[in-house]
Write a structure and sequence with these properties.
Elements lengths: L1 H8 L2 H35 L5 H14 L1 H25 L6 H39 L2 H7 L4 H39 L5 H11 L2 H27 L4 H31 L2
Helix pairs in contact: 2-7, 2-9, 3-7, 4-5, 4-7, 5-7, 5-8, 5-9, 5-10, 7-9, 9-10
Length: 270
């Protein structure tokens, strides 16, 4: 019997099953920790125990520092979209709908999703590595010894900055993307004028879509900061732990914004 158990443990099926169970357990543990810390942060937010100096500092990092890469990614995506769509739309007699298609795509999906990816790559990874470094160097333990809550001092300013600044980043990047798409459409297709493009944009753009985009962007910013901070807070094991926590934060943030985007699509457009 002992030999049979030893043999089963050495099989590929057992190893794969064990890996899946370990990953599932880790998933639920991480999700539970993130949810628990969100409610702790919410307690300080409701009681209005906010360090506005930290919020402004984190807002500057979240919005200003990430702006160049965000604008670059979103505008290049809009250029690629217009480059491929405009000639085909003209061939089908739909030149008056190019602006509508580009603007709706930017406002509903591309602008906010690509901005979220850029923010995760630059700001989310930075937040995770900052808190992970503080954790492995015992700075967070020192804060606890001084009776300073890390959730109030570290989590809340980052989450609040993400929720407040992400909509502004998305508005600016989407606007630049629509303009870049229009300039590209004029170059890529004949008979497409700037007036024709802008008229099409205004015909297809609705306040409802903009409001949904802003709400989605705020949720994205909050989720990115919460997940990045939480994964950094769980770091352990020195420099290797910092790297693992940063990678985990990026992966979880990517998954979270895709899930949130799916929820918004089902709630408002399905």
């Amino acid at each position: 019997m002992a030999n049979l158990k030893l043999y089963l443990k050495q099989t590929i099926t057992y190893q794969v099953s064990l890996m899946i169970l370990r990953n599932v357990r880790e998933f639920f543990e991480t999700f539970g920790d993130i949810a628990y810390r969100f409610f702790l942060v919410l307690k300080y937010l409701i009681s209005f125990q906010i360090n506005w100096k930290q919020v402004f500092e984190q807002s500057s990092k979240f919005a200003v520092d990430s702006l160049p890469i965000t604008l670059s990614i979103v505008s290049m995506t809009a250029i690629i979209l217009a480059m491929q769509v405009a000639p085909e739309m003209v061939k089908q007699g739909g030149k008056d709908y190019i602006g509508m298609l580009v603007s709706l795509t930017m406002i509903r999906e591309i602008g906010v999703i690509m901005s979220g990816f850029a923010i995760i790559s630059m700001i989310g990874s930075s937040q995770a590595s900052e808190l992970a470094t503080m954790k492995v160097t015992d700075q967070i333990d020192a804060m606890k010894a001084l009776k300073v809550s890390p959730f109030k001092y570290l989590f809340l300013p980052r989450i609040l900055a993400g929720a407040l600044m992400m909509p502004f980043v998305v508005i600016l990047s989407s606007t630049i993307g629509i303009i870049a798409g229009g300039l590209t459409a004029m170059s890529a297709a004949k008979d497409v004028t700037w007036l024709c493009y802008i008229t099409s944009v205004w015909q297809g753009l609705y306040i409802r879509d903009i409001n949904i985009m802003l709400l989605k962007a705020s949720c994205f910013g909050m989720a990115i900061s919460l997940i990045s901070s939480s994964c950094g807070y769980d770091a352990k094991g020195g420099a290797k732990g910092v790297g693992i926590a940063t990678t985990k934060a990026v992966v979880w943030s990517f998954v979270a914004i895709v899930v949130i985007d799916c929820i918004f699509a089902a709630a408002f457009y399905f």
